[in-house]
Amino acid sequence: MTMSTDIVLPYPGRAISWIRQEVRLVAAGLADEADRAKATTWLDDLITAGVAVRELRSGSGSYAFQLITARGARWIWAGHDAARLSALTAPEPHPALAGRTPTH
């Protein structure tokens, strides 16, 4: 099973907070006590969270937390400095959309 959720946030602290919130949600549903303990240990490590925020803020790369469960499921949460990612651009609008104004 593959699950992907993306969010773009303007501040590193908010990004790490979102990752921590998502880890809490997943951890609450884990059946294996050892798996929940791995997630809880990471959540309780506020020093690591602070370092992740500082690293993202300084633009020195990205941050990721990975949880591999006893049953082999792999969960990965990652934060990247979006200002440093290259933007995707289209060379020209699709002909069906040319001259139209987005409504959303």
What's the gist of this structure?
With 104 residues, the protein is an alpha+beta fold. It contains three helices and two strands. It is 40% helix and 13% strand.
**Approximately how much helix is present in the residues?**
40-55%
Summarize the biggest pleated sheet.
2 strands, antiparallel
Residue runs with pLDDT of under 50 for 5 or more positions:
none
Number of strands: 2
Q: Would you give an account of this structure?
A:
The chain is an alpha+beta fold and 104 residues long. It has a domain at 12-81. Helix content is 40%, strand content 13%. The chain is built from three helices and two strands; from the N terminus they run H-H-H-E-E. It has helices spanning 12-28, 33-44, 46-58, and strands at residues 62-68, 74-80. The chain has a two-stranded antiparallel ribbon with strand order 1-2. The mean pLDDT is 81.
Q: Keywords, please?
A:
104 residues; alpha+beta
SSE diagram, text form:
Blueprint: H1 12-28, H2 33-44, H3 46-58, E1 62-68, E2 74-80
Antiparallel strand pairs: 1-2
Helix pairs in contact: 1-2, 1-3
